[in-house]
UniProtKB/TrEMBL annotation, chain A:
<feature type="transmembrane region" description="Helical">
    <location>
        <begin position="131"/>
        <end position="153"/>
    </location>
</feature>
<feature type="transmembrane region" description="Helical">
    <location>
        <begin position="21"/>
        <end position="42"/>
    </location>
</feature>
<keyword id="KW-0046">Antibiotic resistance</keyword>
<feature type="transmembrane region" description="Helical">
    <location>
        <begin position="216"/>
        <end position="237"/>
    </location>
</feature>
<dbReference type="InterPro" id="IPR051784">
    <property type="entry name" value="Nod_factor_ABC_transporter"/>
</dbReference>
<keyword id="KW-1133">Transmembrane helix</keyword>
<feature type="transmembrane region" description="Helical">
    <location>
        <begin position="54"/>
        <end position="75"/>
    </location>
</feature>
<feature type="transmembrane region" description="Helical">
    <location>
        <begin position="160"/>
        <end position="180"/>
    </location>
</feature>
<dbReference type="GO" id="GO:0140359">
    <property type="term" value="F:ABC-type transporter activity"/>
</dbReference>
UniProtKB/TrEMBL annotation, chain B:
<dbReference type="GO" id="GO:0005886">
    <property type="term" value="C:plasma membrane"/>
</dbReference>
<dbReference type="InterPro" id="IPR003439">
    <property type="entry name" value="ABC_transporter-like_ATP-bd"/>
</dbReference>
<keyword id="KW-0046">Antibiotic resistance</keyword>
<dbReference type="Pfam" id="PF00005">
    <property type="entry name" value="ABC_tran"/>
</dbReference>
<keyword id="KW-0067">ATP-binding</keyword>
<keyword id="KW-0813">Transport</keyword>
<dbReference type="InterPro" id="IPR003593">
    <property type="entry name" value="AAA+_ATPase"/>
</dbReference>
<dbReference type="GO" id="GO:0005524">
    <property type="term" value="F:ATP binding"/>
</dbReference>
<dbReference type="InterPro" id="IPR027417">
    <property type="entry name" value="P-loop_NTPase"/>
</dbReference>
């Protein structure tokens, strides 16, 4: 069984690496934002720079999880290769796991350029232990966004998903305070901000990396979002199965 | 011979459309079964049921005595993917490795590549292969897991004569080693080259399940057309189907054009513009289908 997981993961990773544009896309925007906004504005202030770096890393990682995964799933559903895979002697588990592991790899890879900019060009500081904890938090907080990506990928066509996933992700990133710290958010955004999944994730990341105290409502809301996204993804998967393979 | 795959009284609907209508078919170990029929006849639906992609609306499908939904049963089968959907970025060797990983005793990779003329292409990305090369790779994937039973859906569509021949040889040698094959095709030549048993499907029904020779006889129908004032052309002997065009031209489909013309002449009705043409496979199928409908 585990050798099948390896085979599927390897195959999906090769696809990712041979078409590296998806990887670049999720790493490029956050590292550019780092250079253009974070370095001149918060680069000299250790805690602000650390928090901004964490936000940018999470921004890149979740765009990979939400946008990248939803497009990959929607496109795969449209390929005749997909029904062929179902005729091979394996259940959905190896494929699903392979999909998750390769998305995680993209998420972690997209973090690297931001980390380099933060280390070389800003006063952001972090201990190795906090960095490790931060990466752990990044992976855990990425789960609801992967589930949202799966939901969109199984519900929409690949054409629709390109637009919808971005329409969903960018407002979420702004509302959650990833691009502009919560203190600088306009009032009407600050009201909804704690209820977005991005804010809960950001609160946790800031707490782990920069030692702030997290907002409880946001963290609880993140847990609620995770459950909702898991149910929605499961429903979308079964609905798609029933449509195409019953 | 042991039956290794069986469809018993299966009906499959897609919404209101009836794709298969109470079809019963046994596949026995060691035979090559040719599945012949026009597009939309139900060939692909039948294969999808055998490989576990779909479930019948009613009736049962068994594979090696078990359910096609059970991966353990599917370890003993092989199938061709559609070559248009092969993952473009992977290399030929990588795809074979990936598919091999699913089976307990896969084929030797080099031997498989050589058998399908792919040895030189092992390092090539699939996106860069020609249509014919992709087709050969797709067929090779059906044999990758050392299966007992392979499903080949239109295996040589789009291949040149030489590749088609070598593919047929490959299938024949698999059969000689005891393998079982279900092959579908539009082309009667392809089925003729491979199969001894032919199953003709149309409108979701099995129209004929017989030896190649007898099906060949049914399929060898001709279209006879002429202009005449004939009240009842369907009544002529051996007529499978009749059509009358607006200008009074009558078109008849028959298995025995010689006898039909003799009848026409001795009948004394004047006619003009007599033409006898071979029918396409499609027309022949339609003739069988309408005859079938007439019996019911």
């Amino acid at each position: 069984m585990s050798s099948l997981v390896v085979a599927h993961t390897r195959y999906l990773m090769i696809e990712q690496i041979r078409v590296p544009i998806g990887l670049l896309a999720s790493a490029l925007f956050p590292s550019l934002s780092m250079v253009v906004f974070v370095v001149p504005m918060a680069g000299d202030h250790a805690q602000a720079a650390t928090m901004a770096s964490a936000s940018m890393m999470f921004f890149g990682a979740t765009s990979g999880a939400l946008i990248g995964l939803s497009i990959a799933v929607a496109m795969e559903r449209e390929q005749p290769w997909n029904p062929y895979l179902r005729t091979l002697p394996a259940g959905p588990f190896p494929r699903f796991t392979g999909r998750m592991v390769s998305t995680l790899a993209v998420m972690l890879a997209s973090v690297v350029p931001v980390l380099l900019v933060a280390a070389l060009l800003t006063e952001a500081t972090i201990t190795p232990l906090r960095l490790l904890a931060g990466l752990g938090a990044l992976v855990v907080c990425g789960i609801p966004f992967m589930l949202m990506g799966l939901f969109l990928g199984y519900v929409l066509t690949s054409k629709a998903v390109v637009a919808v996933s971005q329409l969903l992700f960018f407002p979420l990133a702004i509302l959650g305070g990833l691009l502009l710290p919560p203190a600088h958010l306009p009032d009407f955004i600050a009201v909804v901000s704690p209820y977005t999944p991005t804010r809960g994730a950001a609160e946790l990341l800031w707490a782990v990396t920069a030692g702030t105290s997290p907002d409880v409502v946001s963290v609880v809301m993140l847990a609620v979002w995770t459950v909702v996204a898991a149910v929605a993804a499961g429903w979308a998967y079964r609905r798609d199965e029933g449509r195409r393979f019953s | 011979m042991t039956v290794i795959a069986r469809a018993a009284e299966i009906t499959r609907r897609y919404g209101d459309a009836l794709a298969l209508d109470r079809v019963t078919l046994d596949i026995r170990a060691g035979e090559i079964v040719g599945l012949l029929g026009p597009n939309g006849a139900g060939k692909s639906t039948l294969i999808n049921l055998f490989v576990g992609l779909r479930r019948p609306t009613s009736g049962t499908v068994t594979l090696f005595g078990g359910s096609p939904q059970d991966p353990a049963m599917r370890r003993r089968i092989g199938m061709t993917p559609q070559e248009t959907g092969l993952p473009e970025t992977l290399r030929v060797g990588e795809i074979i490795d990936f598919v091999s990983a699913h089976f307990p005793e896969p084929c030797d990779k080099d031997e498989l590549l050589a058998r399908f003329g792919l040895s030189d292409l092992i390092k090539r990305q699939v996106g860069g292969l020609s249509g014919g090369q992709k087709r050969r790779l797709a067929v090779a994937l059906a044999f990758t897991g050392n299966p007992e039973l392979v499903f080949l859906d239109e295996p040589t569509t789009g291949l040149d004569v030489e590749s088609r021949r070598s593919l047929w040889d490959g299938i024949a040698s698999f059969h000689e080693e005891g393998g079982t094959v279900l092959v579908t095709s539009h082309y009667i030549e392809e089925i003729e080259a491979l199969a001894r048993r032919v199953v003709v499907v149309g409108h979701g029904r099995v129209l004929a399940d017989d030896t190649m020779e007898s099906v060949r006889g049914i399929v060898g129908v001709r279209r006879v057309s002429f202009t005449a004032d004939l009240p009842d052309p369907e009544g002529l002997p051996g007529v499978l189907g009749a059509e009358r065009a607006g200008d009074g031209r009558i078109s008849l489909v028959t298995t025995d054009p010689d006898r039909l013309v003799v009848e026409l002449v001795t009948g004394g009705t004047p006619f003009t513009g007599l033409e006898i043409k071979p029918t396409t496979l499609e027309e022949a199928f339609l003739a069988i289908t309408s005859k079938e409908a007439a019996h019911v």
